[in-house]
From TrEMBL:
Domain HTH lacI-type: 5-59
Identification of the protein by name: LacI family DNA-binding transcriptional regulator
InterPro entries: HTH_LacI (IPR000843), LacI/GalR-like_sensor (IPR046335), Lambda_DNA-bd_dom_sf (IPR010982), Peripla_BP_I (IPR028082)
UniProt cross-references to Pfam families, sorted A to Z: LacI (PF00356), Peripla_BP_3 (PF13377)
Entry keywords, A to Z: DNA-binding, Transcription, Transcription regulation
Keyword Transcription regulation: yes
SMART domains, alphabetized: HTH_LACI
Cited CDD domains: HTH_LacI, PBP1_LacI_sugar_binding-like
Species whose genome carries this gene: Mucilaginibacter sabulilitoris
Alphabetized SUPFAM superfamilies for the sequence: lambda repressor-like DNA-binding domains, Periplasmic binding protein-like I
GO molecular function: DNA binding
């Protein structure tokens, strides 16, 4: 993943000092034309590219912050970005936003690009495909400031901001159970994500509390987090075609919740008469749905603000930061018609 040829390698091959090679590559007037030509030709021959990570780790400040999210159009992330910007700009930092579209490869490329822009730190919410966090481990071990929010890397000890996913899911599932639903399915994002596991655990705990049997067939993963409509439609149809069809579904992510409502409507299914719905979403339009949608809402704006405060504090610390915290914020369950048992 990282460029194998370094300035040291070029210097060794040409019998020059690393400082001479560095100056030649940067076009310094201190280096003669012949030496410059020698260095540049050799660099081209070995396909040398400056390592953006090495560049970003130098003692230089750009007063900019890189943000990695799956999709700006996602209501949760658009609100979180508003929170990020509200703090960053007041503190004199610019914000550079990148989208992964739930792709690990695009996430990797985005991080490399942000580092090449010399950002002072990163605010990261992992893509649904991301299982390998080695690029973040490398940066973190070098002391580069990173704060994860929402979709965090469990194996990296740095600052993190998360919602209380377990309780949000427990409350949503318990609401359906108290309404009289007993065959409750769970539609969720990639199992790579910690939030998917925490939300499943909350869902399962509510079933256990009321002695409802969990059917493995009622659990459906959408590994692209709702970015591929056909994937969501396939999962929904699988649930509806079961011999013992679920009478309710708890949905574990923002985009999946909205997509599921559209798919059910397209299929001619009535909510909640044919199937009840509760989902995680920060959309401001859910009250206008037909029927109005019961949702678990996260304080996305606040999460964005808290993550940015943590990151800037880390960036501006005069000493290496060695103690890290994970802050948890509460979710809010907003009951509406989509989860009500028909009379």
């Amino acid at each position: 993943m990282f460029e194998s040829y370094t300035i040291k390698d070029i210097a060794k091959a040409l019998g020059l000092s690393t400082s001479t090679v560095s100056r030649a590559l940067n076009g310094s007037y201190e280096i003669g034309a012949e030496t410059k030509k020698l260095v540049l030709e050799y660099a081209e021959k070995v396909n040398y590219r400056p390592n953006p990570i090495a560049l970003s780790l130098k003692e230089q400040k750009s007063h900019s912050i890189g943000v990695v999210v799956c999709e700006v159009a996602n209501d949760y992330f658009s609100q979180a970005i508003n929170g990020i910007e509200s703090i960053a700009y007041n503190r004199g930092y610019h914000v550079i936003i990148t989208q992964t579209h739930e792709s690990f490869d695009r996430e990797t490329a985005n991080v490399q690009h942000l580092l090449s822009r010399h950002v002072d730190g990163l605010l990261v919410s992992l893509s649904a495909e991301t299982a390998d966090t080695s690029q973040y481990k490398y940066l973190h071990e070098k002391g580069f400031p990173i704060v994860f929010f929402d979709r965090v890397a469990p194996d990296i000890n740095t600052h993190k901001i998360i919602a209380n996913n377990f309780k949000g899911s427990f409350d949503a599932t318990e609401l359906l159970i108290k309404e009289g639903f007993t065959k409750i399915a769970h539609l969720t994002s990639s199992s790579n994500l910690v939030i998917s596991r925490e939300r499943f655990d909350g869902f399962k705990a509510a079933l256990d509390k009321y002695s409802l049997h969990f059917k493995p067939g009622y659990l459906k993963y959408c590994n692209h987090g709702g970015m591929i409509q056909d994937e969501v439609e396939f999962a929904v149809k699988e649930l509806l075609n079961m011999d013992e069809r679920p009478d309710a579904v708890f949905i574990g992510s923002d985009r999946l919740t909205i997509s599921c409502m559209h798919i059910l409507k397209k299929m001619g299914m009535k909510v909640p008469e044919d199937i009840a719905i509760v989902g995680f979403t920060n959309s401001d339009a859910t009250e206008l749905f037909d029927p109005p949608l019961t949702v678990v809402r996260q304080p996305a704006f606040q999460i964005g603000q808290m993550a940015t405060e943590m990151l800037i504090k880390t960036i501006e610390s005069k000493w290496p930061v060695e103690e890290f915290t994970t802050e948890q914020v509460e979710t809010e369950l907003i009951p509406r018609s989509s989860s009500q048992k028909p009379l």
